[in-house]
Amino acid sequence: MLEIRGVSKRYEARPLLQNISFSADVGETICLLGPSGSGKSTLLRVIAGLEPPDAGQILWEGNDLAAVPPHLRDFGLVFQDYALFPHLNVSDNVAFGLRMKNWKPAEIKSRTGEVLALVNLHGFENRKVTDLSGGEQQRVALARALAPHPRLLMFDEPLGALDRALRENLLGELRGILHRTRIPALYVTHDQEEAFTIADRVLLLHDGQIVQEGTPADIWSRPNSAWTAQFLGLGNVIEGVVTAGKGRVDTRFGVFDVKCGHGHMAGERVRLLVRPLGADPPEGRKTTNAANTIRGRVLDVIFQQDRFKVTLDNDLCFFLKDEPRIGKRIEVRVKVECLA
């Protein structure tokens, strides 16, 4: 299927992509996740053939695509701005690529109806695309990309212009469509919730490099660096010094027992990921594991869906199930992991 080998790209002497390598299998949805400027969209454009790499290869089933122009790669692209033709109706927008490939009129009509039904737009054939909502326009763009039976689908922040509720709804539908059609897909986003919902595998990009890859569950539970933990908002990242006691790290928040397989020596500085296990017991009682406990006074509490973001006077933030009172001193039992 798709294989990327050592792809690099520079712009005005600045590296945009640095030795990128990965592959995509049949039916697999890979999400390229990272902040703005990490190289996600540049990588997608290189794979599509819209920009040449400075080094490396793009291969399909072992064949190098360097000499293959974009329109002959049989890759479908879906963008954030939809890129629909405003003077054409829904049916003609979807059929555009089929006409370019000289499909017969009967085949075009059949395939157009088929993909519009797939994206839940049956009956919209004669609508003007300018009369559609943002979500409906994005469905048309998806139908147009699906119509010619692409061997790979590529999405560049396709839902970024939609409101949260509509984005979540379309994301679930898109995941279902990709699984049913078994078309491999590359999905670019800066939104981790979007990435973890749609992806079978996530490639986390930072400064033009893949810094971690794996399933959403793997990356969430086992971040491999302080940058990854901070970008994903997995918890507080703090610094400490390994003590002479085995598995203990001294920090300005206290001494923590840490399970770590890195083989650090006493006196070595390390970074720790601190995640909450639970809030404190009623005042006047001790926690059962005082070693891994953060103490502080509550400065602020913000409700976020099914949990509360609690800011303490030591500059740490925790997401807790129960709402503490502002001004109260609390203890938060924490899980502490060594990042490096």
Account of the protein in words:
This protein has 340 residues and is of the alpha+beta class. It folds into two domains: 2-223, P-loop containing nucleotide triphosphate hydrolases (Rossmann fold); 235-338, no CATH class. It is 25% helix and 35% strand. It has eight helices and 18 strands. Helix 5 (164-181) links the parallel strand 7 (152-156) and strand 8. Helix 3 (105-118) packs across helix 4. The longest helix is centred in the middle third of the chain and has 18 residues, at 164-181. It starts with a strand and ends with a strand. The model is unreliable at 281-290 (pLDDT under 50).
Write a concise keyword list for the protein shown above.
eight-stranded antiparallel beta sheet, 8 helices, alpha+beta, 340 residues, single chain, 2 domains, globular, 18 strands, six-stranded mixed beta sheet, Rossmann fold
Summarize the structure.
The chain is of the alpha+beta class. It has 8 helices and 18 strands. Strand 16 and strand 17 form a beta hairpin.
Given the helix and strand composition, which structural class is it? alpha+beta
Biggest sheet architecture: 8 strands, antiparallel
**CATH class designation of the largest domain:** Alpha Beta
Compute the number of helices. 8
SSE order and pairing:
Blueprint: E1 2-11, E2 14-24, E3 29-33, H1 40-48, E4 55-60, E5 63-64, E6 75-79, H2 90-100, H3 105-118, H4 134-146, E7 152-156, H5 164-181, E8 185-189, H6 192-198, E9 201-206, E10 209-214, H7 216-221, H8 226-232, E11 236-242, E12 248-251, E13 254-257, E14 269-278, E15 293-304, E16 307-312, E17 317-320, E18 329-338
Parallel strand pairs: 3-8, 3-9, 6-7, 7-8
Antiparallel strand pairs: 1-2, 1-4, 4-5, 9-10, 11-12, 11-14, 12-13, 14-18, 15-16, 15-18, 16-17
Helix pairs in contact: 2-3, 2-4, 3-4
